[in-house]
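User: Hi! I'm working on a homework problem where we have to compare a predicted structure to a textbook description. Could you give me the structure for the chain below?
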Amino acid sequence: MGSGKTTLIKQLCMALGCRDNLSSPSYSIVNEYLAEAGGQKIYHIDLYRLKDIKEALDIGIEDYISGEYYCFIEWPGLVNSLLPQNVINVSITHEDNMREISIFME
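Assistant: Happy to help. Predicted structure tokens:
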């Protein structure tokens, strides 16, 4: 909590040409944005409030992650088994005013 996940995703969306009003999908679970160049969709998903993988399946997580659009997921641990092999993982740790960001591909 408070490590900068949503802020990072906002910056990535802006870099992709999104001019929408970006906000955390903590309550909506999924926010959909549109990049101005080419009409590319961007999905911003926050799975923090979900209790099990069934809830993720109920929101259509498989459709979001198997599509051709960008899909940024906060708290993805619940759906790790569903994620394709070519995902880029970003880990953010936050402690005592220090933030460490690790980026890796699985």
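For your comparison, note the following. The radius of gyration is 14 Å. The chain is about 20% helix and 30% strand. Good luck with the assignment!
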